[in-house]
Amino acid sequence: MIKKKRANEIFRRLARRYPDPEPALDWSHAWELLVATVLAAQCTDERVNKVTPALFKRWPTIADMATADIHEVEEMVRSTGFFRNKAKNIVASASLIINEFGGRVPETMAELIRLPGVARKTANIVLSNAFHIHEGIAVDTHVKRLSFRLGLTKHTDPVRIEKDLMPLFERKNWGDINHFLVYYGREVCNAQRPRCTECELADICPKKGVE
DNA sequence: ATCCCGAGGG
DNA sequence: CCCTCTGGAT
């Protein structure tokens, strides 16, 4: 099957499986989503959701976080792993937003990736989910794995995968395709033991049963 | 390529 | 013990 046609079919089936896409991270505005997404690096969303309520209560605004004590932040995000880098980056990002972006989370890729600890994946999540702007497709561990297994890319580098994926889906669907692949990656096409026998994409999957 | 790093599953 | 979890910086 042609790759583009396979991509359309994947999107169609997953859109039916997930009719009401909801982000798994808890957030109420762009800054909270940015922080939650930074914390979600190599960590489950479930665990992130356990630490963010206290975090946002302790430092409710970007300006509050910009003046936070790093060590106190470290202790509150410790369980998410990489806690020193994450705490430092969150506070530094808050400062940069206050000092250079007028106190508001920027709404472009070029500006977002200037924030420490924020690269294309995190920026794409914030842009699509908080601002409904689709500059690219967020490529994380799930999107990477499923794109490769489903034959949508031959590459393993996230930037090249993103370039391979963008022409395969309509721009307005770039946010949804991330959500679909992440959820399907968790529920069926997981990393260790993909459930190929109960996979509704098996008939169009080049790697069925291989991995 | 390597480091950052805790928590949970198998 | 090993691998994985919506990565990013050096």
TrEMBL record:
| One MF term in the entry's GO annotations | class I DNA-(apurinic or apyrimidinic site) endonuclease activity
The note describing how and how many cofactors are bound reads:
Binds 1 [4Fe-4S] cluster.
Q: Which cofactor does it need?
A: [4Fe-4S] cluster
Q: Which keywords are on file for this protein?
A: 4Fe-4S, DNA damage, DNA repair, DNA-binding, Endonuclease, Glycosidase, Hydrolase, Iron, Iron-sulfur, Lyase, Metal-binding, Nuclease
- Stated EC number for the protein is 4.2.99.18
Domain HhH-GPD residues, every copy: 39-187
Residues binding [4Fe-4S] cluster, per UniProt: 189, 196, 199, 205
Q: Which Pfam families match?
A: HhH-GPD (PF00730)
Matching SMART domains:
ENDO3c, FES
Could you identify this protein by its name?
Answer: Endonuclease III
Report the record's Gene Ontology biological process terms: base-excision repair, AP site formation
Upper lineage ranks?
Bacteria, Pseudomonadati, Thermodesulfobacteriota, Desulfovibrionia, Desulfovibrionales
